Structure formats: C-alpha cells, structure tokens
Amino acid sequence: MTVQKDLPPSPSRTDVKVVRLVVAALILRDQKVLICQRRPDQPMALKWEFPGGKVEAGETAEQALRRELDEELGIAADIGKRVAHTRHTYRSGSAIDLQFFVVHEFLGELTNRIFHGLRWSPLRELNRYDFLAADRSLIRDLSAGKLL
What pTM does this model have? Predict the structure, then answer.
C-alpha cells in the first residue's frame, strides 16, 4: 500500500494566497497620532494610513518597523508595545498580517520622504479620515478610546 503525503502547494498555482507581514506605528504626541496620506500615484491613492511597511526576511517586527520609520520619516524610533494585530484580505485577493506598535519616543526631525501628506490627528477624530480598509477596526477602537 502506498501512502500519499500532503504536499505543500506549488508556488506556480494561482489559487495560493501569500500573506504579507506588515507593521505600522502609532506615533503619539500630546494625545495625537501621526497619520500619513498615500500619494496619488500609489495603489489606494490618497487613503490615510499609519507609517510602516513590510517585514523583510530575517527581521523581527520591531526591527522592520524601526527600519521603515527611518526610510519613510527619517527618525530613529523607540518601538513600544504591540497594541493590535489583525489580518485583512483586500478585494484584489492580497492579504496582510498587520501588527501595530506604539511609539512614544524617537530621535531626529520628522521628514516626509514618501507620503502625499502627514498630519497629527487627535485620536478621537481618526474616524473622519478615509483610512485603508485594513486599518478601520483599529481606527474604531482608537477613536473610542479603547486601546490607548
């Protein structure tokens, strides 16, 4: 009798979904959080989001976020505790595993290197902005004062 083992899906199959690991920062100052607006030439143009990005191979989530904040904003951030973790699948089928970390302190001057705009928003007013779909449950919790 031959026993057939389940094999991992072939990378060439189109039905295999890759989940991207993504990190984002809630940079806080005076009861406000830094939010960033995507450029008009990017996917999901002009949507609001929190700074951060993809976790590269061999990085921890905290290392990736520190690198991303340096690349995007020119700061050396002290990454605090993780305050939220979610998975989201977009209509396109792409999926992300998203972790949010608090940043209370950083060194350097905030410099907008990649965004259309930056804004300090009061936590309770976040729901006024058109955020990426993956951020919306976090926005509801932050606006309601549930996480911080």
Answer: 0.86
